Amino acid sequence: MKGRDPSFFEELVEGQQPEILWISCSDSRISPSSSIGLLPGEMFVHRNVANLVVHSDMNCLSVMQFAVEVLKIRHIIICGHYGCGGVKAAFDDSRFGLIDNWLRHVQDLIQKHSATLNAIEDDRERLDKLCEINVVEQVINVGETTIVRTAWEAGWDITVHGWIYTIADGIYRDMGISIDNAEALRELRQRAATGL
Ligand code: CO
C-alpha cells in the first residue's frame, strides 16, 4: 500500500469519511471490505449473528446513529448470506445457550412468514428463502429506526440496501429492495406483510 500511496496511512490517521454503513453476519467466511474491494476507511461496519437489527439493541443503534449523524454516511447495506448458521439454528430450534434468545428474533420471522416457508418443500430452498426474508425484514427494521426516519424527514440522502452473499461462489447479490424514503419503506413493509 505504501508503495502505491506513500501517504495512505498518514491520511488515515487524520480521520474517516466512509460513505457506507455495512451490517452483516459475524460469520468468519464473510470478509466484506476486502471482498468488495474497499480500502480501510471506506466502510463503517457492524456485525452480529444473523445480521439482525433489533429495535432495542443499543449497540447496533449507536453504530447507526454515529454513522448517519456524525459520519454522514449515504448508504446502509444489510448483507445476509445463504447457509447462515444462526438462521438455520433458529429454524431447527437448536439449543446453543444464551444465543437462542438472540435468535428468537429469527424465530419470530419464521412464524410471521410460515405460509411462504411451508409452501417450499426442499429443505435447502426453504432455508435460502428464510435467509432472504431475514434481509428484507432487517432492511425494514433499519428504515423504522428513529435515526433513519429522522434523517429522511430532514431530507438527507440515505439509501438502505438489502444484499445477500453466497459463500459457495463469493458473489454478493443486490436483492433489489433498496429504500430511500418513508413511502418506499411503507411499500416494502406492505410487501413483507402480504408474503415475500
Ligand atoms: Co450467518
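^ cobalt (II) ion complex. The beta strands are 20-25, 43-48, 75-81, 159-166, 171-174. Residues 27 and 49 are 7 Å apart (CA to CA).
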